[in-house]
Amino acid sequence: MNILYDERLDGPLPQVNKAELLKDLQRALPDLDVLWREDELKPYECDGLSAYRTTPMLVALPRRLEQVQTLLKLCHQKNVPVVARGAGTGLSGGALPLEQGLLLVMARFNNILHIDPAARTARVQPGVRNLAISQAAAPFGLYYAPDPSSQIACSIGGNVAENAGGVHCLKYGLTVHNLLKIEVLTIEGERLTLGSDALDSAGFDLLALFTGSEGLLGIITEVTVKLLPKPQVAKVLLASFDSVEKAGRAVAEIIAAGIIPGGLEMMDNLAIRAAEDFIHAGYPVDAEAILLCELDGVEADVHDDCQRVREVMTEAGATEVRQARDEAERVRFWAGRKNAFPAIGRLSPDYYCMDGTIPRRELPGVLQGIARLSEEYGLRVANVFHAGDGNMHPLILFDANQPGELHRAEALGGKILELCVQVGGSITGEHGVGREKINQMCAQFNNDELSLFHAVKAAFDPQGLLNPGKNIPTLHRCAEFGAMHIHAGQLPFPELERF
Amino acid sequence: MNILYDERLDGPLPQVNKAELLKDLQRALPDLDVLWREDELKPYECDGLSAYRTTPMLVALPRRLEQVQTLLKLCHQKNVPVVARGAGTGLSGGALPLEQGLLLVMARFNNILHIDPAARTARVQPGVRNLAISQAAAPFGLYYAPDPSSQIACSIGGNVAENAGGVHCLKYGLTVHNLLKIEVLTIEGERLTLGSDALDSAGFDLLALFTGSEGLLGIITEVTVKLLPKPQVAKVLLASFDSVEKAGRAVAEIIAAGIIPGGLEMMDNLAIRAAEDFIHAGYPVDAEAILLCELDGVEADVHDDCQRVREVMTEAGATEVRQARDEAERVRFWAGRKNAFPAIGRLSPDYYCMDGTIPRRELPGVLQGIARLSEEYGLRVANVFHAGDGNMHPLILFDANQPGELHRAEALGGKILELCVQVGGSITGEHGVGREKINQMCAQFNNDELSLFHAVKAAFDPQGLLNPGKNIPTLHRCAEFGAMHIHAGQLPFPELERF
């Protein structure tokens, strides 16, 4: 799908000789598994954003830290670009490989090293799956809070690299809020510890800087996360609305009432019907929008909050508010939401999932704006998202076999993200920038800000070998892409009024 | 007190001609208030760490952003070091001025620009006092959570620069966890926006990097903070113990029980007696240690938590657990804690307040270690601290008029911080590194890590003009200081066993 992506705008990459690199690797690390045959490389040509595909030059599958260290030193010395990959579930093409580079797969580092129930921490290797941490912590009544939809498969190293979120991040924060310490290797093979076992650490906050840096600053080799006690009770309310604007207002009013739900999700009519057809969750198919609001904590507290949320929703115009009667119904309500993406996949040959974040107060206006853009571009858009934190996931439906639709879908996606920037939001909530949103970074940041990103990148990786062409665009790209930096509140797009 | 501090170890600073700089400033900014007479400069020669004093060359007191911008451009062009200062309440000498530099006082930027009750945010100028934000938010039932002891006086710009904490940061986080967005000026006078009004932002997390960077990366000109709804109820328990180890264990067990108190503070016998003599808070003067545990939230929840905390404390060996009977007693219990520093000031001509953070499980051992060091150095140490988050504030009592005591106090302080590093902790919890702990940074970080800090610093300020000699030591300093980097768990200090 990368019609709008022109990789020449990222500047020249070093030329690497495949046979020579393979020989060097085999000599330096005779016991390292390296894939080099075309058929072996195939499974690694994309991550979760399957529209973008590139065959990597070589794939390395190390098992030991020393292997990674030697490999990085070699690549640094020979000027070979390196792309790190965890489970490959990312949705912005952050782990998209390079034809002229090595793909470093960290999936085999999958040991849980230590669970400390008293300190409520888990020290794990980067290839450990997100859900596996919670499973290992469960016997102590603890869990790891961030829960991306891919949590069965995605790895914690990738979660850190992308600063992953999930349906509970309104209350429990993104990955960065749930980390204590990471161990990383620089491109020169130096081992660094960022953060500490204590709650604060001295010097610059490189742990936060590294989190969400999408593989541009170094390779994550160990992660210490915070664990939380499992809430005693969780209850879910399902509210129906006859307009998305009313549902949007209800979201703002729940938060303004001082309630912080464990999860607060919105779906519009297209998404509701798709999910209901697929999962039979019991959703009201005539509603223009529904809200799912989970309240968790101790029994009495949850009971009170349910009452208050019910009142706020009703005042905001909910036509019906239902509380899941039992655990089975609660799980069914969530199953509809969690399977909304594949459900929509059944409506259309292709879909394209966006990930913009906006201030909550802008929800109704941005939803209107998306509807207008949808009409203008002649493509349906379903809205399913983390309403509580203003993290939208518009899903653009298209058919890649229809001439021009692919191109239109990508252009529409770009416009939606630029709309998010325009109202003071961000082009990414939890999926990262990767390759996908590299052009929109030019709308989000001005040249001074981008230059600063490049200077910070150069502090870690002066040769630019780590994941080039992702996350931070070159100034050349932004000049060619032609998008001016959008100041929030300005109106660079004449077709979009201020709502 | 800076006997152990030798500023020659920070490398040469540019030589600045005072008369020339004054003339340049007056020409470029005729309406800028600049102080230059010896008697006018006097009040600015130190911050809250009054043991370190230097007379600034000039003090600038701008009122408008453009003035700051022009001033920075001029200093950048003329190679003049700049130290920023908010309210000057910092405890690590971060705002200590330079004889060869300009002190930039941001105190006059003291307007609250916007309170948004629906989004629960406040946009303020950097000179606004911490408490003034909560006061402005109070009519909406909201407040700003981080509450350093100096909250009546300290400014939000300084809070961001130092990543300030407070008695409630166990539950509500440090400053970095309560920020959405900041506006800054680089040393070149460029305006940057870091963070966004949305919950996540794209690119590297420069907002977190900037928070706690102690004036080394740029000048904060605007701050958007998150506001929280005021808890319905707050109750305080006061528990007495016959040993500090038992109190330390109780802390670990409260947290392990899955309870997150609003505040969880410990005081040892010396601190208890000092506070009781001064404030008459009703503390048990015979106890070896007390814990103050505040539980906040909705009524029913707080009631349950009080019961559970009481049980846990009793099991951990509390000899008595009292709940404040009414709001007046609750306030009195806290008044003792909040005035513990001045109370100890009455016991001794001088005291030196440390700020180390350790993993909670190390509390009993580190308290023993401090007791042994106290004996070895022949100086009394009182312990008053944020026990819940392992943030210790040992207070070293000494008399600067007794030959050698000043020197011994500083040396003892350094040893206590190195002990914190040794058990996996940090040399700062919430006060920052500043000038005070610059030597201990050599114990906390290895040369690779320090080099990375320098590279990041250079990305923002290649000439090193912003607050030189603070926060990040030169490699030369670390080599001369002679302290090797301490890996947590190693035993570089033969006089300290592993507890």
Would you write up a description of this structure?
- 2 copies of one chain form a homodimer.
- Chain A is an alpha+beta fold and 499 residues long.
- Chain A has 17 helices and 19 strands.
- The first copy, chain A, has helices at residues 18-28, 38-41, 65-78, 130-137, 156-162, 169-172, 206-210, 244-256, 269-279, 299-315, 327-338, 340-345, 363-377, 405-422, 441-444, 447-460, 475-481, and strands at 33-35, 58-61, 82-85, 102-105, 112-116, 121-124, 142-143, 179-185, 191-195, 219-226, 228-229, 233-241, 263-268, 289-297, 320-323, 350-353, 356-357, 381-386, 391-398.
- In chain A, the strands form 4 sheets. In chain A, strands 12, 13, 14, 15, 16, 17, 18 and 19 form an 8-stranded antiparallel β-sheet that branches. In chain A, strands 5-6-10-8-9 form a 5-stranded antiparallel β-sheet.
- In chain A, strand 8 and strand 9 form a beta hairpin.
- In chain A, helix 8 crosses helix 10 (299-315).
- The longest helix of chain A is centred in the C-terminal third of the chain and has 18 residues, at 405-422.
- Chain A is globular.
- Residues 487-499 of chain A have low confidence and may be disordered.
- Chains A and B meet through strand 9, helix 7, helix 8, helix 10 and helix 16 of A and strand 9, helix 7, helix 8, helix 10 and helix 16 of B.
Topology of helices and strands:
Two copies of one chain form a homodimer.
Chain A: H1 18-28, E1 33-35, H2 38-41, E2 58-61, H3 65-78, E3 82-85, E4 102-105, E5 112-116, E6 121-124, H4 130-137, E7 142-143, H5 156-162, H6 169-172, E8 179-185, E9 191-195, H7 206-210, E10 219-226, E11 228-229, E12 233-241, H8 244-256, E13 263-268, H9 269-279, E14 289-297, H10 299-315, E15 320-323, H11 327-338, H12 340-345, E16 350-353, E17 356-357, H13 363-377, E18 381-386, E19 391-398, H14 405-422, H15 441-444, H16 447-460, H17 475-481
Parallel strand pairs in A: 2-4, 3-4
Antiparallel strand pairs in A: 1-2, 5-6, 6-10, 7-11, 8-9, 8-10, 12-14, 12-15, 13-14, 13-18, 16-19, 17-19, 18-19
Helix pairs in contact in A: 1-3, 8-10, 8-13, 9-11, 13-14
Pfam family, one (chains A, B): FAD-oxidase_C
Keywords (chains A, B): FAD, Flavoprotein, Oxidoreductase
GO molecular function, one term (chains A, B): glycolate dehydrogenase activity
